[in-house]
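Sequence in, structure out. First:
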Amino acid sequence: MLTNGTRAMPLIDSATPLYSIAELRAIEQAAMRDLPQGLLMQRAGQAAASAALKLLHAQEDGGDAGHRRVLVLAGPGDNGGDALEAAAHLAGSGTEVLVWLAPAAQATSPEREQALSRARNSAARCMDAATSTASAAVGAAPWHLVIDGLFGIGASRPLDGECRDVVQLVNQLDCPVLALDVPSGLHADTGAIDGVAIRATHTLTFIGDKPGLHTANGRDHAGEVEVAALAIAPALLPAAKAQLGGLHLFARQLQPRRQNTHKGSYGSVAIIGGAQGMAGAPILAARTALHAGAGRVYLAFPDAPPAFDSGQPELMCRHARDVDFSGLHFAALVAGPGLGDKAGTVELLLRAFDSDSPLLLDADALNLMAAEPELQSALAMRTGAGATILTPHPLEAARLLDMTVAEVQADRLGAARQLATQLGVIVVLKGSGTVIAAPDGQVVVNNTGGPALATAGTGDVLAGLCGSLLAQGWSEWEAALGAVWLHGAAADALVAAGSGPIGLTAGELIPAIRRLINALSA
């Protein structure tokens, strides 16, 4: 284990594939061909009951031992059947269980009907949503746990009627909430919410993990996520097109430095940006690149440069017109932080694009690309030359894709994939659950960081970090994955040590990133 601040993390974590709804449906259907009817639902119910008892016991360990009261929300579909199976198991353990039965618009599956029969024949008390006191009972009782089994991955419309009302009541309760498969109202593929959704403290997701639990609204609504594989044969699981981020994806690059090295061994980075009034952005990026291990870092200003950075005199400040951006001079280029859009900026970017060095484009470089077809054509010409990484936030991505921010956020994985494929680059779509996409459709959803990063300058720090890793010889894919993960993990460590999330500044991340890289490389 590595202790970083007050937070411990494993040195090597494991791969976590993320499956789409379509992939999960195919896996489930293949598994059910060789299983007795209803067995998967029974396994899901047993797993849910075990997870619920674990949460109840954790409360008892905290001094709340005694009578346990659990509210189970059971929807009309198979997700509701999972919840009903769990209710029967919990009632058999001596737990007081109230089952709130959602109205069914059509006939339910035979498996769900069998689960309902088992719940009714247990000690659990079932209450139909149509009962006048049903909603009042949900909000009035002091529950120790709520189990959400209203709607799973098959939900196709916003919650309404009694289900919407009960979700709003549950979201006001002060107790743990365990969602089964996905929190009701959250889209399993995208993390989008149309209206309301259960805000769970824990999610037990079945068969395989889902991308929507880890991006967009997923991280706010899913809580701690655990996968119950339901004893599905591994041979039935296809190679996933998406996975959760982690240290294992780039750990091979984190090695102790050899003694017989010098500054030239670790590459030179040029940060291109810093128009008048915006010099702070490239300085943050440059300081990060230096502290993350680059051998030399240059600042290329489009206007007259300062003589030096008084806070980091090791940085070399130049006028961009005097800088040769060719690969003979620089191992990596970072263009865009505070660049502005004055006359001559497009020509400056074209010079950077003409380099065969790895190139990271951020901030104003992305906005100029969206507005100038000439830059997009130049980017296409880089195919086969240096690698290119784009690090847009949702608004910058929307401009590049000619869509709205809402459309980008409604399908973050899809937007990142589309942009990566369209431009032939690696895309880092920033936000909650940052999405890293490659031109071949490969996608990783990052699992570090949080609201502490929602402050000015943190994107500049990320750009400088990624540029530094590129300069040190990391592949573009590993550099993107590593930079995003390390950036978030450094913020997490600062939050754990009491420096956030409120009021954390971008500059505080820089020494935290250095500490983390050194600890991991040791």
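Second:
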Amino acid sequence: MNQPTPAIVAQSAVRRLPRVALLLLCAAYLLPGLVGRGPWKSADITAFGYMSELARTTEGIARWFDPMLLGLRPETLALVPYWIGAWAIKIAPSWLNPDLAVRIAFAFLLWGTFTATWYAVYYLARTARAQPVAFAFGGEARPTDYARAIADGGLLALIACLGLAQLGHETTPALAQLFFASYLFYGVAALPYRRAGPVLALFVGTLGITLSGAPTVGLALAIGSTLYIAYERRRAARSATESDDDGPGYTLGALATMAGVTVLAAVLVFSLRLAQWKLTLSYGSLFSDVRGQAKLLLWFTWPVWPLAIWTLWRWRRQLNARHVALPFWFALVPLAATWTTDFSDRSLMLALPAFATLAAFALPTFRRSAAALVDWFNVLFFSGLALLGWIYWIAMQTGVPPKPAASVTRLVPGFVPEFSPIAVVLAAAATIAWCWLVRWRTGRHRAALWKTLVLPAGGTALCWMLLMTLWLPPIDYARSYVPQVHAVTERVGQPSCVAELALSRAHIAALRYHGQLNLQPLLLGTNCPWLLVSPETIERLHTIIPFDQWRFSGTLRRPSSPADDLLLYQKITPQ
């Protein structure tokens, strides 16, 4: 017998969120940051470097299965993300910058993540155990309308996640992993209701995440999904009728499909030794860095983690139900990867669709007073952030007030402010839209289930829009290698080649793309007139470089980060 549901929702509360408004919100979140900037440090430019190398390789198809950047394999030995970026560069018209072409391709991945998450939440909310209480005289929410409202809330919750803002707009394997993980999530959720689409999503999601640098996470998600489908079938077999229990259930064909996909993923993982690519267990830090990991979890998944915890509490009698158990598993596996790998934030990003799903199922259990508290907090929080953004931007442009202006100068030394009318108009429009949204949300009108998450999603989109319009020039200056590369090219010009010693992958990619420099490893033997060296080798530099052949020419710094210094040496020409 089913436990009582904690959801109490009337039909009047499941009004549909206008599709135009939802699409505009997604566009306002996706589009800012596409143009007006280059690849950022350090994972962004590094991944782009591998994509550029693949796009211009002439070594045949074998190189596509072994990406290289000046003889270095990537730290995240993914394949599919680099293929996507390389093909975006190859098919882009000549007038389109290669980095912009890659960003456009990866923007479609984020859009696909939004779509998959919406449909996953929708089908989970369709299950009988997720439905609200049936009223004695009718008037409770209809199943499809209720599921649509919950799905709208899930998508708003995903957009509201703070951790998605920057990483979701970079062209790294992490975004591809998020895309494929969300499609695997959708496939498992929708499999009882559809066949072709979910089956295709299972194959694309499982194999895609396996070949995108997260094979262990993908395999764990697939194994857990297979076991859960088997459990659901066994539980349904014990029930008197499946329809009275949880709606449409998993068929034997669904179990066979999920098991087959899992076996295929396991074959790829172990035959290609993919598990060695990503999984780097660090058991010592598992307990020593608890505080840091907890801080990451709290801010990265804000504001959905309190709602997710509330869902687990309020639905605690249905923890084995499909709408709770599946998102819990899809959140738990990336969370475990966060604690056991060196890619904490990027591993945690894979859990955001599941966290957003759990947060969405908190909505039908909220009291009006709690929803009002969430609303006012978001009004004050995001309005305050927007106000600070405008004040500091005015100070950067005019020097008044002096203290904020001095703070900006200290953070981005050497940056010359520039005024962009288009950026100001877009930022002003976003601010006006936010004011209208606050007025609408705090007005007196009929309640809607998704309204609690409108302000968090709108506030996050507003802040991202302000960052990518008003603050894009200083942010790009601070996070780009362009100033440092320009300093290098001003010193060396365009020589036939430049030797390098122990440079990072990010520096190599930036020097090759922004400076068009022909880098060659020093240790392989070169006859280049210039040498760039990483300061990390300074202690053993005298044993590597014959100083009777090289003369120190200077230290080239990235203005906003002294940790990215480069040492420049010039070859001594015999007299």
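Remark: The beta strands are 498-501, 519-521, 530-533, 550-558, 561-571.
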